[in-house]
Write a sequence for this structure.
């Protein structure tokens, strides 16, 4: 266990202990050591007050941004270590942040303010664990459990709702029954949590290996910040293509997508417009004509609300909008779509279509899934051969068109567009002489 602790952390614990203070590794890093996973950040808690901590490390690089809450950040060997004085928190009047923090002299009091038992663990240099709430046992059993009364803990800080779900999705742990009930009951506390903070937890959650299980069990939490999902959660779809309702189909599609954020978001949102487009035909079969565009509009609004960056938002919206296109399994159509979307979005779209298919009635989509594999192969071939896909790849440009006597203006673009069309469809080769000849013949 000792070997996993970096020299910087050891140095900090020794320096504080040498000055007569208690000091422990605490929280997520200890949890990860117990899980056998390398920690990605290291936190220290200590009986030293911030001024005393600063005194122990005089002359070293320090950041004081967290000083008000008792945190000194020390930079050792290129790594940042947060050293926080034992503290409890005053009441939370806004479910956002404590009204004040109070320094305490006791490790257990500090651990008791932490969110889940697995995070309320501390370890000293010898590897001795301080675990007053049974965190080690819960880690062994794969259980997420609040420290103290769950209702109160979620009401104090709404972000804990999202943290619980994120840990559940990433670690594949079960959320203990009382903790789970308190999450459902208190989900409205999320209304007081900043969009950026929900965003951060949601990204971790969606890319987690058990994201599907969390989506399946907590749709009400997702509807709290994205009420646009509500009609999808109860949507029934009576079509030969679907053996699941709207939410179960969505969850299965998320599970079937590779773990990247863009694809997971695209699957979560791809059918959000379906309820608004539902039309039941005379034979009782449901249709959802035009739902891709409605889903794209809603996705745009939802991603903006949670302050996703432009690049992520635009790509997700494109994938949602296009998720229903039928790409014929022919070279020329594939080249056209590759050119229109660009290779990255095109291959993502194939993943979206595959994941969407995986969430449908399996027998009926088998052929479509096989066709997607073929389309991918053809697209990879076209890319490997460096085939012409966009105006930029065309062997002639606007200057060539104007040299042939066509006046600058929209007509130049039209001529180039026409040539590209013929190259994409295979009528003309992408050879300069051939294309120049064609231009001169216009
Ligand atoms: P991660 O692996 O994402 O870093 P973490 O649990 O370490 O998970 P941090 O934000 O690094 O999360 O927080 C460090 C520790 O601080 C936690 O392990 C927990 O003990 C405590 N903590 C963090 N956020 C909260 C919170 N909202 N409420 C109570 N305790 C918290
Ligand atoms: Mg951490």
């Amino acid at each position: 266990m000792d070997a996993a602790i970096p020299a910087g952390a050891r140095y900090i614990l020794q320096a504080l202990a040498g000055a007569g203070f208690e000091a422990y590794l605490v929280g997520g890093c200890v949890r990860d050591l117990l899980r056998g996973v390398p920690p990605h950040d290291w936190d220290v808690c200590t009986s030293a007050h911030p001024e005393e901590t600063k005194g122990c490390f005089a002359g070293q690089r320090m950041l004081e941004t967290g000083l008000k809450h008792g945190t000194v950040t020390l930079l050792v060997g290129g790594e940042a270590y947060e050293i926080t004085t034992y503290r409890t928190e005053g009441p939370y009047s806004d479910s956002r942040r404590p009204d004040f923090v109070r320094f305490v002299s006791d490790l257990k009091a500090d651990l008791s303010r932490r969110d889940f038992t697995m995070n309320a663990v501390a370890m000293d240099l010898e590897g001795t664990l301080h675990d007053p709430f049974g965190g080690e046992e819960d880690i062994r059993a794969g259980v997420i459990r609040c420290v103290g009364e769950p209702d109160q803990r979620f009401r104090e800080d709404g972000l804990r709702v999202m943290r619980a779900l994120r840990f559940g999705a990433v670690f594949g742990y079960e959320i203990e029954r009382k903790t789970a009930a308190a999450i459902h009951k208190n989900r409205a506390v999320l209304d007081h949590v900043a969009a950026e903070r929900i965003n951060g937890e949601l990204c971790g959650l969606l890319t987690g290996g058990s994201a599907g299980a969390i989506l399946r069990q907590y749709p009400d939490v997702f509807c709290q910040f994205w009420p646009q999902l509500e009609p999808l959660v109860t949507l029934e779809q009576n079509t030969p293509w679907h053996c699941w309702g709207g939410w179960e189909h969505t969850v299965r599609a998320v599970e079937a997508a590779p773990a990247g954020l863009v694809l997971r978001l695209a699957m979560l949102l791809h059918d959000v417009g379906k309820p608004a487009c539902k039309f039941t035909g005379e034979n009782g079969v449901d249709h959802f004509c035009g739902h891709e565009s409605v889903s794209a509009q809603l996705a745009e609004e939802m991603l903006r609300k949670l302050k996703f960056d432009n690049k992520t938002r635009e790509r997700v919206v494109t994938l949602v909008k296009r998720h229903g296109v039928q790409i014929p399994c022919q070279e020329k159509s594939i080249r056209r779509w590759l050119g229109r979307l660009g290779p990255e979005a095109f291959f993502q779209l194939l993943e979206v279509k595959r994941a969407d298919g995986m969430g449908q009635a399996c027998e009926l989509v088998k052929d479509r899934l096989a066709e997607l594999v073929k389309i991918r192969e053809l697209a990879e071939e076209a890319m490997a051969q460096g085939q012409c896909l966009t105006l930029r790849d065309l062997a002639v440009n606007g200057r060539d068109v104007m040299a042939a006597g066509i006046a600058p203006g929209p007509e130049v673009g039209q001529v180039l567009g026409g040539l590209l069309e013929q190259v994409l469809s295979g009528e003309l080769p992408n050879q300069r002489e051939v294309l120049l000849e064609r231009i001169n013949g216009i």
The first strand starts at residue 23 and ends at 26. Residues 395 and 430 are 6 Å apart (CA to CA). The mean pLDDT is 94.
